[in-house]
Each structure stands twice: as structure tokens, then as C-alpha cells.
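pipeline/complex-builder :: batch 7 item 3
reading input block
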Amino acid sequence: MSIAWYLAVSAIVFSLGAIGVITRRNPLVVLLCLELMLNGANLALIAFARMWGNGDGQILAIIVMTVAACEVCIGLGMIVAIYRRHLPIDVDEMRELQG
Amino acid sequence: MSTTTWAWLVLLFPLLGTLAMALAYTVTERALPGRTAGWIGTGAIFLAFLAALAALISLEGHSPSHRQLVSSLWDYASTVGINARVSILVDPLSVFMILSVTGVSTLIHLYSIAYMDGDRGVTRYFAYLNFFVFSMLLLVLAGNFLLLIVGWAFVGAASYLLISFWYRRTTATRAGIKAFVINVVGDVGLVLGTYFIFSHTGTLDFLQSFHAAQAGVFGGSAHGDLVAGCILLLVGAFAKSAQIPLHTWLPDAMEGPTPVSALIHAATMVTAGVYLIARMHPLFERAPAAQDVGAVIGAATLLIAGTIAVTQTDIKRVIAYSTMSQIGYMIMGVSIGAYAAGLFHLMTHAFFKALLFMAAGSIIGAMGGEQSLDRMGGFRKALPFTYGCFIVGGLALSGIPPFSGFFSKDEILLVAGERGGWHWALYAAGYLGAFLTAIYTFRMIFRAFHGEPVPEARELEGGHLHHVDVPTNPATGEVEDTDVGFPGPNHPIAERARPMSVAMAVLAVGATGIGLVQIPRVDFVIDDFLRPTFADSPTYNSSGHTSLLIAGLLLGTALGLAGIAIAYYVWVLRPGTAERVRARLPQLYELFVHKWYFDEAINLLVVAPAAAFGRFARDVFEPRVVDDTLIGGTTGLVRAGSAAVRAVQSGFVRYYAALLVLGVTGVAFYFLLQA
């Protein structure tokens, strides 16, 4: 099967994730969509690894997963903290960093 | 010890004196007790005088052709094309100068011990005084242009410190600032002149510069750069020696204590210009135009200052204008090649002018600080010693034989006559000036000492020295602040203060007899002594017309006596004559009494435009251009730029994410299109 199919699926998953990150306001969903983006990228990496027949891409994919796990840890922790303070669960409300 | 070692010692002692007094003051945080500072200062200068004598004796041990010795302590800056050393040049000219400077300064220091008694700033005073002498010695001993400029600037700074010594008086601080600013104009002239010369000779050393000039680096006669350089050096000389139009600081400098006036006029400052021209004679002789400028300005100054002195009423200002006039003779003399005569006059003038100032200090003391001739009179019996000193100084200044001024002044004019041509105008100006000199000198003496005794004189005859209850500034009549920086309650007179009378007696003897070292056709001490310095000068050995010489001596004596006779007639025999003459010639009187309107002219031409420019800069340029355009423009630009950038930082996380995605997509498309 041509690699183009794998890449097409990867691109679709990535784009769906990106659209989700941009359009959704619930931080939980934003995190989920981020995961989608990461896994879209992982799919592409593994597809390329298969194509070349070596393990580099797979190693990279495992690193990405590790990073994603860390990121989810922190992200979920922040969401719980926000929830406990009874702040609105809405990314648009969290804009103290504006210039 | 070698000659140059003695010369270094001459520099060392006054410097040590300054540092000792300054450090003692700083460490103990109080003034030295009693007259300690005075004796330290006097001792330091006296040791310098002894070292100068030793240098003289040691220099005489060399053969005449080897009497130009250079000694260098260390390299100040040694780079490509320039080698500035801390070096001194010991030759007959500089030894002559250090002897005059230290000798007269010692006596002035001695006089100051009594004169400044009771002034709370006396330690500071003597520290400044020693520094002043050190600066002048550095100036005359300098072996290269760099050290000369350093000494030149030090002298200006020291004069500023001493003129505004009584800093509670606004008149004194203003006078100090004026002296300093005008001297800086001269400093700029000196530095630029040095540059013009250095750009051709390639060395800062005096002797090497002169050799280069003799070797012809300036090409044929009167190279433009050399003339420009010499005229710029003259600007420096005019500012320091108070020649028109840079003379206005000198009369104002009378705000300083009287011994300071004596020091400025006799030894350490105004003679620097004369020395400079004499020292640079190998350059000036190759730039005749510059020599002519110097001669004409000198002649003009001696006449103008003489006419002003006739109308002034402040006793110290009369003497100040007479100094200007006498320095005019010297500048004229050294500019027309009469080096020995000009320097001889410098030495005799140092004696009688210091004497006159000291005597004036004594009579000011008797008046309780008052300086106006209008209020003085009849002090002959009350101050017999001061009167005698005034007479000796006045006769020497007027050029009456056998007093010292007689021989030196006539020698300068003799050389002017020998040069012929338009120099006859200088000759005439010189004798006219001599006539004026006799008039104003004896006007001053007759007004202060003859006539009806004023109350202060009567009080002194009764044995009591006049004291004022409320001290006022003699210049403005303001009541004075009696804190530090005020003349002090005591006003000593020479009759009662031993150091003052000793100093004045020594000077009186000098003013009487010093002229005998060089009598035309009889002895040539100064001529012979200075010959090694001026060996290369074609005009040094004048042929000498005996008839012209005798005519000049007779004319000088006659004019001097005539001036004294006129002064006697006008101010003693017929006291109202002066007022009648004044009523007859009101315009002339106004011109003279307003000092030929030089202050007004300088105000109008220099000070007012500068002040107007300053106001323009403050009121228009700074708010509009600097604040609004430059600073406002820059901050506005930064603010507008940052506002645009700040707008991007909205704080919306999704917005950032969208930008990120867009950016990455954009980059991706770019590379795709490239591929």
C-alpha cells in the first residue's frame, strides 16, 4: 500500500486536532485535540519508519508519546487546579498574559 | 649637583610647600596655627630661590656654547610621531626667569605673612600662592610645548583661585571667572599655535623645533602656517599678559588680596607672554608679520592703558593699568628683537611694581580697606615708610635716573629707534607712554599722600589705626559677609608689621639699584648672560647709535620729570585744575574713565551674542529640537512600534495556536513551492 494513504490519514488526524485546538474553548477538549495532533504526527513517523525499514521513526514516536504523557499530566493538573478555584473552565477567560 | 638637578629642585620646593599645607589642612581638618602656613610657604619659595641661585652658579660653570641643557624625568607619552616628555630646558633665559620669579615671590610671600594675618583662610591662601609660583616656574622651565601648555593652564587656574580668594564677595568671584575665561581663550590660542608649528616640525621639544625651523621646514620666509602659528601663540601671550583686546580681566583681578595682585603683576603671571615671545624668538624671527602684530599691539596697549590710568580712582586699578602699560613695553620690545632689553625691563618692573602694590596694600590697610583715591589724602606724615616706598617705586616706574626703570625702558625704545622706518612710531608711542606714566604715577602719589590729611590719616598720626565697624566691599559698598572668605578684621600697615616692611625695604633697594647691572655703554650683565639663548638671533647684537642713545636717555628723563611736574602742578599746587581740564574735554574724559569702552565692546560683540545664543538654545533649541524632536521623536517611534507589537499579544490561547498553525502552514507551503 502506498505511503501516501498513511500520510493522508496522518494529515487528516493532525488537521482535525489543530481545528479542535483552535475552535474549542473547553481546556479538556483542547488537550484531547492536542493529543490528536501528536498522534497524527506519530502516525506519519511510524509510516516513514516502515518505508525506510529502520527504527528511527519508531523511537521518535515513543519520545513523542512520553512528552505527550508529561504534557497531559501538567495540563490535567492545571485544569483540576482551575476547577478547584471555581474559575470558569474556558481558555478564552484565561488571558492574563496579554501584552 | 648638576645644573638641571638644581632646576628640578626649584620646581620641587614650591610643589612640596603646596602639598604640605594642603595635606596638613586635610589631615588635621583645621587651619595651621598662627603664622605657620605663612612661614612654610615663604620658606618653600626661599629654598626655590636658593636652588635657582645654585642653578645660576652651576650654569655659569659651563662654556657659553653649552648653556642650553635639557633634562627629562620620564616619557609622558611616546607614540608614533610624538614624543612628549616631562623635560625642562635650563638655559640663561629660563634661569633668568626663575631667579626673577622666585626672588620677587619670596618677598611677596614674606609680605603676605603679615598682610593676611587674621584671615581665616590663610592656610588655603598660602597653599594657592605656592601653587601659583610652582605653575609659573613650570611654565618658564618647560622644555617642550606640552609642559609649557600645562604650566600655562596651571597659572590660569591658580590666578582664578587667588583672584576669587575672598569668595564671599560676588565681585571677586566674577573677576575670577572673567580672568579664567579670558585666559582659556589664550590657552586655546597657545594650543592651536603649537599645533601649527608641530605639524611642520614634527617634534614638541623646543630646541628640536628651533633647529627644524633653522633647517628650513617652513620653507622660505614667512610661511603661512608659521605666521598663523606665531599669531596664535601671540593670542596666548596677549591673554596672559593682558594686552588689548584681552586685557579686561587684569583690572578686575584687583579683587584679590593685594599681595596676589603684586604676585600676578610682578612675577608669576603677566610676564608669561613676554617670556613666551622671547623663548619662541627663532620662530617669530621667521614670521616678521607676527612680530609686527606683537609690536603694534604692545605699543597700542601701553598708550591706551596709560590714558586709562590717568582717570581711574581705585588706587590698585591705577597700578594695574600701569602694569598693562609696562607689559606693553616688554611685548613691544621682545617683538622688535630687543630681547635683553625687554627681559631686563621685566626684571626691573617686577621689583618696582611689587613694591608699589605692597605700598598700596599698606595705605589700603590704613584706610581700613578703602581703595578709592577720592577718599585718600595727606598720608605723608602718617605713613612715612610707605610714602618713601611709593616715591621710590614711582620714580622707578616713571623712568627717572638712576632708578631701575630708567635704564630698562630706554633700552627698548633705543632698539625701536635703531630699527627705523615705521618703528619710529613705536618709539614715539613709547615716549608718549613714558610721559603718561609719570603723570598717573605721581597723580596717585600726590592724591594719596599730599594735601589735607583725611580723618583716617589724622587718626593714624594720633597713633591709632583706623578700623571700620561694618566692613563693606570697596567696589560696591555692600556690607560684607564676615564668615570664611572675607578679608579679615585686621588691616596691617607696613609701619607696624615687620615682615611687610622688610619685604618692601628689600624691594625698594632693588628698585633703586637693580638697573645698574645694565647701563648702556657701561656694563652688559644681562646682555652677556642671555647671549647663549639668543645666539642665533640676528637682531640681538645691536650696533648702537651713541647719539640716539643719549638723545633717548635725555628725552626719557625730561619727559619723566615733565610728567611729575605737571602732576605736581595739577594735584598739589592748583588742586582744582583736574576738574577744569575734565570740564574742558568731557568726551575724552568719558572715553578714558570708561576704559575706552573695551568692556562694553566685548560685551556687545562677544558676551551678548553668546548670551543670546545661550538663551536661544535654552528657550527654543532645547524644548523644540532636543526635547520635542529628538527625544520626543524617538520615544514616539518606540511607543508606536511597541503598541503595534503589543496588539498581537491578545492573551487568547486559541489565537496563538491559530497563528502557530498558520505560520507552520505558511512555512510548509513555502518549502513545497520551492521544491
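note: The domain at 3-93 of chain A is CATH 1.10.287.3510 (Helix Hairpins).
queue -> next item
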